[in-house]
């Protein structure tokens, strides 16, 4: 149908519209160029692990936090020296013995451009506290999160907590509107294998936004140009942050393949280089190795809930409920040999249950009970198991962990604890850990500098309100529970440290876990890459720089 002449666009109007489109495109390109750093770069990271989900509250695992918390931010963060610093909260203060007030950062926007407000912070804290969140254990004692004004929230507690801000790292702030729009007002039920929008999609405020997530294949993050922190300056007025425009996380389970990808340039940084290759990598002039003592460590823990041990030839009894059997396991394991042969010297044996880097964990507890197979056999006989018993040991199927478990299974079998190793992928292994369904399990724990999260997560009697979330053996000691609860509410830091030490001594006496070793964390990267290494094995992408080729 033809239009009346008076309503047809003129040629001049067509030309003007075309010019306007070109001008807008040019302005957009200029704005993007201004936002991006000079020599913006792509970084490809290889690791044996996949993050499993992008939901910030569904998991509390290192391999998830490494990725998800580039996209999501917390009210607090840590600086280059691992000291607490402001995040989405610029300041905080205790306004009464049982309340804390947090002032939120102004002008912060989510990746879709919507503003971050107190409503989003309150929603995120409530989502963290509610089942099936696996982060609830960090907020135990928080009764209510409430909005004071658009940029102020208050947390009301059931008892005083002098170190509450220390517990807020890795409590991700989400967009309430986005989560509710996508049916994600509650965290993903990871253990129930729930599929929901937040598994492969994300909406945070962090320095990087999620571009795509293909589980067990690739995660692609893109620089969030509007992130509030890019303008921050470091010492001498120099830019504090890095120059990454895109980051790819590539899960490569095979040690050989992961290292081959580094050698060929297919990846730029490997977070878990094979231990057997570290000596050779030191001589490779193309590679830089960064090393850091681990604030976390590895453990064995036992089923102490069931009256009969599953997958065992002992019927009607659970040997692990007997302290003598647990001590026998301890004496049967030659940890130094595992460090020498499996980790190739990249670790230290520990008898402590938390690193001395954790406040209140005394260095004198780091001494192990001796490796003594004869003592182990005598303890088993004394406990009523002169012929030993059979048990299944669960382990994740990543090479160094699996190799350590194989060595321990052989050592235990030699003293009569006939151990069958069952390795499984991360998607099958981690639910056994958090659901407490394993009979005997090896796993690692990454502590924070304040001890309470670890004491509560590992040793407190389990319940679904956020106590003992990673107490995989469902160990229960009411006297220990009372002390752990006292740690949470003790405002005097000297007394608090003394309580932490008392708890750790009692744990050492009762042996609900067997402490094994702390690794030396080693990253391997091409010379063009520079990064800040934290003792929790997390890479903060905001600080990574990649030099352009000469």
Q: Major sheet: size, sense and barrel closure?
A: 8 strands, mixed
Structural class: alpha+beta
What ranges have pLDDT less than 50 throughout 5 or more consecutive residues?
1-35
Global outline: globular
CATH T-level topology of the largest domain: D-Maltodextrin-Binding Protein, domain 2
Estimated helix fraction = 25-40%
What's the CATH C level of the largest domain?
Alpha Beta
Q: Can you tell me the CATH superfamily of the largest domain? A: Periplasmic binding protein-like II
Tally of discrete structural domains: 2
Output mean pLDDT: 91
Approximately what portion of the residues adopt beta-strand conformation?
A: 15-25%
User: How many helix segments?
Assistant: 15
CATH architecture of the largest domain: 3-Layer(aba) Sandwich
Rg estimate, integer Å: 26 Å
Strand tally is 21
What's the N-to-C terminus distance? 61 Å
């Amino acid at each position: 149908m033809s239009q009346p002449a008076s309503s047809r666009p003129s040629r001049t109007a067509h030309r003007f519209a075309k010019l306007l489109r070109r001008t807008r495109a040019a302005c957009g390109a200029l704005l993007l160029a201004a936002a991006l750093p000079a020599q913006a770069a792509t970084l490809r990271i290889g690791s044996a692990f996949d993050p499993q989900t992008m939901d910030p509250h569904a998991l509390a695992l290192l391999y998830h936090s490494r990725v998800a918390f580039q996209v999501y931010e917390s009210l607090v963060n840590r600086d280059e020296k691992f000291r607490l610093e402001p995040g989405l909260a610029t300041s905080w203060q205790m306004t009464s013995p049982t309340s804390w007030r947090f002032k939120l950062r102004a002008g912060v926007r989510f990746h879709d451009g919507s503003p971050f407000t107190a409503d989003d912070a309150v929603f995120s804290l409530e989502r963290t506290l509610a089942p099936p969140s696996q982060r609830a254990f960090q907020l135990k004692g928080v009764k209510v999160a409430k909005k004071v004004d658009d940029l102020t929230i208050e947390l009301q507690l059931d008892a005083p907590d002098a170190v509450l801000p220390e517990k807020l790292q890795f409590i991700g702030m989400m967009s309430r509107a986005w989560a509710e729009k996508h049916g994600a007002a509650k965290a993903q039920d990871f253990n129930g294998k729930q599929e929901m929008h937040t598994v492969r999609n994300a909406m945070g405020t962090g320095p990087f936004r999620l571009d795509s997530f293909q589980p067990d294949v690739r995660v692609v993050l893109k620089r969030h140009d509007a992130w509030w922190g890019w303008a921050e300056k470091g010492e001498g007025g120099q830019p504090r942050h890095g120059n990454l425009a895109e980051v790819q996380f590539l899960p490569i389970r095979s040690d050989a393949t992961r290292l081959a990808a580094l050698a060929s340039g297919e990846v730029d940084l490997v977070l878990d280089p094979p231990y057997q290759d570290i000596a050779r990598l030191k001589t490779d002039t193309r590679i830089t190795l960064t090393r850091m003592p681990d604030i976390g460590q590895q453990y064995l823990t036992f089923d102490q809930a069931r009256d009969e041990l599953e997958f065992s030839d002992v019927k009607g009894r659970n040997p692990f409920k007997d302290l003598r059997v647990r001590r026998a396991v301890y004496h049967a394991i030659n940890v130094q040999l595992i460090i020498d042969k499996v980790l190739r010297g990249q670790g230290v044996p520990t008898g402590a249950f938390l690193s001395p880097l954790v406040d209140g964990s005394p260095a004198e507890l780091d001494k192990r009970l001796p490796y003594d197979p004869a003592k182990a056999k005598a303890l088993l006989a004394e406990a009523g198991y002169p012929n030993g018993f059979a048990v299944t040991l669960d382990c994740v199927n990543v090479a160094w962990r699996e190799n350590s478990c194989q060595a321990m299974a052989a050592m235990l079998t030699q003293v009569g604890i006939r151990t069958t190793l069952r390795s499984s992928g991360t998607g099958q292994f981690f639910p056994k850990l958090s659901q407490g369904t394993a009979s005997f399990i090896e796993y690692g724990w990454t502590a924070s500098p304040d001890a309470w999260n670890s004491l509560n997560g590992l040793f407190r009697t389990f319940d679904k309100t956020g106590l003992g979330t990673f107490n995989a053996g469902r160990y229960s000691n009411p006297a220990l529970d009372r002390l752990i609860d006292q740690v949470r509410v003790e405002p005097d830091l000297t007394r608090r440290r003394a309580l932490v030490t008392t708890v750790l001594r009692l744990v050492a006496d009762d042996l609900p876990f067997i402490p094994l070793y702390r690794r030396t964390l080693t990253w391997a990267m091409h010379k063009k890459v520079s990064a800040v290494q934290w003792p929790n094995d997390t890479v903060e992408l905001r600080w990574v720089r990649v030099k352009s080729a000469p």
